[in-house]
Design goal:
By secondary structure, the protein is α+β, with helices and mostly antiparallel strands. 41% of the residues lie in helices and 26% in strands. β3 and β4 form a beta hairpin.
């Protein structure tokens, strides 16, 4: 029998009962070791725990684990152990075929020798064994492949400096150990991947939420600006209102509107604003093609520059930059053509004195604003024409006929659909644009759809709108969706205007429809984007809830408890955490800075730190846990080189229950722990400092001797700070303490329902101001 051919366990003689006893104990120990390793999520800890335990089974003077690094095509040795000392990180490249570790991994076969240098040629063509990467050369070696469900994970090895150190029994023990190690390594890799996915996903959710909030806020503001502008009938007032509101959305140091005047063959700028000042009106001839505004109007193309001096030659080649009529030379600018139904109205411009001032987002804002401005200018011009026509006709015809003809002549020139009806809302006249839009002449429309505004309008409140405009003697603007003959359903903004004679008697009612279907499409796209982002936030909620301790896990170690948890938003800055270790149960209720997505980020950091400190670092003192957690939070949120100091942190109560001896140790940051015994509720305040920036000194560990029937309560500030009640005031801590004391005899599940009902009743119709978390534990 050669040096590496040793008897299997099946070959041990029946009389050797002591060997069987040892084997049985080893199998028991293997099971215990396997449970420890499989529950470990750190590669370093897997190596450490395996090494500590394998020495109880065999000579493991050298122990190491090689992990397959697919990206680098090598086996990484993160740090084995030799004679109790850690070896430095090293690796074997897979092309290094003369290494036993690579041979074992590539062939997925066991490598076993009790005389390495003598047996080496049996495995390799070379007669000379290579030197070790680190440490001393060994004599007896066992290499076993690590795999799981056909997936190659790496290799495990034990080595001795003695000859004939191992038997087949040792190989069998290590083979069983390899199964546990392979499982533990795969679990550690999956856990690391999950943590990265959570971090990446939460960053994405935060970014999407910020984009949504910014976009929604600006779209609401755009809508308000649009309503103001389209209800304005003065070009100067349109420019003034647009400039005033636009600066709330972007850098609009310079703002101007140029209106096409056919008679002068030029762009007339009635008002240009620069840094809050008005310039006198001026005109650019359309022959001045070196002007950016003229080029924009003639080509009907948007022109965007973020470095005027550099980019101008690309827009207007072979021409020098023209001088300004007034003011300073801008560095960034946006020019958008103004059109209504293909009719060229003019141009709108926003300019900045900084380079790189504008993005596609800013262009989109100006583009949407241009649609409102175009409609408003057309309405203003129509109104001016209408006023002029009224003056010319009032002396020539009968008053009512004059009014109708006046409106008809003006409206016939408009690109908007215009209907004129009498005081009974019967249709009298429609312009050509109406026929083009709806596909009917007025007579066809009256026969097919209806004869009065009441019959044809899709707005369910049309009667009330008519009464309002007549009573207030002013126009009303509303939106509706109407069916056309050839274009299907279209969205319209309708300006409803009553016409009175000089004595104040109602003569006619004018309806002017502007097709806003394109704007509605943009609105629907934003709503879809909003849905996508909210779906992402709900997914983030599932991730966050998955990190919380489950009811099954909590009830396993704390059979009688309740948790009243109600986030303000979808995700929460309040969180609870539990871990059972070494026959002690650790419980946390915490309130992170902020709520919603920012608070959720902090809560995930808190949970990860608690897992690491208590489970990974074996820290059991509640005060010390909070001290370490504070240092990690400050370090993570204030990395080296940070410009501003982050003051984010957490308020919390951390309890350590030793239910075998009825001892409670706890530490608290800016919160209190409450103990109810024999009907008396006692408050145990924590340290007046947060787990974060602003803490001075160490957190205090407090100890209580518990009795059967005691009840322990911890909570964040969300419940007592909630506004409500008959006077809309805060609920306050004293009232919550009394509520807990009065209902302490009720079962814990019933106490939770009492808290829920009380909170909902107190809040009423008011908004929830913060995340709410209350926990009760019965001893």
């Amino acid at each position: 029998m050669s040096s590496n051919e040793v008897p299997l366990m099946s070959e041990v003689k029946a009389g050797e009962s002591s060997a069987v006893d040892v084997s049985y104990k080893d199998i028991q120990l293997l099971g215990e070791i396997g449970q420890q390793i499989a529950a470990t999520l750190s590669v370093e800890e897997i190596i450490e725990k395996t090494y500590q335990n394998v020495n109880a089974l065999m000579d493991a003077s050298v122990f190491d684990i090689g992990i397959f690094n697919e990206g680098e095509s090598r086996l990484d040795l993160p740090g084995g152990i030799e004679k109790g000392n850690r070896l430095p990180f090293s690796f074997y490249r897979l092309e290094d075929k003369l290494r036993p570790a690579v041979w074992c991994f590539e062939k997925q076969q066991e490598f076993f020798t009790n005389n390495y240098k003598t047996d080496y040629p049996r495995f390799f063509d070379s007669a000379i064994a290579p030197e070790s990467n680190a440490g001393e050369d060994t004599v007896s070696l066992i290499y076993l492949p690590l795999s799981m469900q056909g997936k190659r994970i790496g290799v495990i090895t034990v080595q001795s400096f003695s000859k004939d150190a191992y038997t087949a029994y040792h190989v069998t023990l290590l083979r069983n150990m390899a199964l546990y190690v392979a499982t533990a390594l795969e679990n550690a890799r999956l856990y690391e991947t999950m943590e990265k996915e959570v971090r990446d996903r939460t960053r994405e959710v935060q970014k999407q939420k910020e984009e949504l909030e910014h976009s929604n806020k600006n779209m609401l503001l755009l809508g308000e600006i649009g309503q103001q502008i389209t209800a304005t009938l003065s070009v100067e007032e349109i420019a003034r209102k647009t400039y005033k509101n636009l600066n709330a959305l972007m850098d609009a140091s310079v703002f101007s509107i140029g209106i096409f005047e056919k008679e002068k063959n030029g762009l007339y700028f009635p008002m240009t604003m620069e840094k809050g000042s008005n310039f006198p009106p001026y005109t650019y001839s359309l022959e001045d093609t070196h002007r950016i505004s003229v080029s924009c109007f003639l080509t009907q193309r948007e022109i965007i520059m973020n470095d005027y001096a550099v980019e101008y030659p690309n827009i207007i080649p072979n021409r020098t930059i023209p001088t300004q009529f007034y003011g300073e030379q801008p560095k960034s600018l946006i020019y958008i053509p103004l059109t209504v139904h293909g009719k060229q109205i003019g141009v709108i411009s926003v300019q900045s004195f900084h380079t790189q001032a504008y993005t596609n987002y800013h262009v989109g804002i100006v583009r949407n604003l241009a649609a409102y401005v175009s409609i408003a200018i057309e309405n203003a011009r129509l109104y001016e024409t209408m006023e002029e026509e009224v003056k010319l006709r009032t002396q020539e015809v009968v008053r009512q006929k004059v009014e109708l003809e006046k409106l008809s002549i003006v409206a016939s020139k408009s690109e908007h659909s215009i209907l004129i009806c009498d005081t009974r809302t019967e249709l009298l006249w429609a312009n050509e644009a109406f026929t083009r839009t709806f596909g009917y002449t007025l007579e066809e429309f009256k026969k097919t759809v209806g004869k009065t505004i009441i019959e044809i309008s899709s707005n369910p409140n049309i009667k009330e709108l008519l009464e309002e405009c007549v009573a207030k003697r002013t126009g009303v603007v509303y939106e509706s969706k109407n069916e056309t003959r050839y274009k299907g359903q279209r969205h319209f903004q309708t300006a409803l205007s009553p016409v009175f004679d000089d004595s104040g008697v109602l003569q006619n009612i004018v309806f002017m429809d502007s097709d806003i279907t394109a704007l509605k499409v943009v609105e629907e796209q934003l709503q879809e984007k909003n849905k996508e982002i909210m779906d992402s936030i709900y997914y983030a909620e599932r991730i966050q809830r998955a990190l919380f301790a489950s009811d099954y896990y909590i009830r396993k170690h704390l059979p009688d408890y309740f948790i009243f948890f109600q986030p303000k938003d979808v995700v929460s800055g309040d969180f609870y955490w539990m871990l059972n270790k070494n026959e002690c149960t650790y419980v946390v209720t915490a309130d992170c800075t902020g709520h919603g997505v920012p608070g959720a980020f902090m809560s995930m950091m808190g949970i990860n730190l608690l897992n690491d400190i208590v489970m990974g670092r074996n820290t059991s003192n509640p005060g010390l846990i909070l001290d370490i957690m504070r240092e990690e939070i400050i370090h993570n949120l204030n990395p080296e080189g940070a410009v501003e100091e982050s003051k984010d942190g957490m308020d919390m109560v951390l309890c350590k229950f030793d239910l075998k001896n009825n001892i409670l140790e706890f530490a608290a940051a800016n919160n209190s722990l409450y103990l109810l015994r024999d009907g008396k509720l006692t408050e145990y305040p924590g340290d007046k400092m947060p787990v974060g920036v602003g803490s001075i000194g160490s957190f205090t560990k407090q100890t209580l001797q518990l009795q059967k029937g005691d009840k322990v309560y911890t909570f964040t500030d969300g419940f007592p700070d909630q506004f409500g009640g008959p006077k809309g005031k805060k609920y306050k801590y004293k009232q919550l303490e009394e509520l807990l004391r009065v209902h302490a005899a009720a079962p814990m599940a019933q106490q939770q329902q009492i808290l829920q009902n009380t909170f909902d009743t107190w809040k009423g119709s008011l908004d929830q101001v913060d995340d709410v978390l209350v926990m009760g534990i019965s001893i």
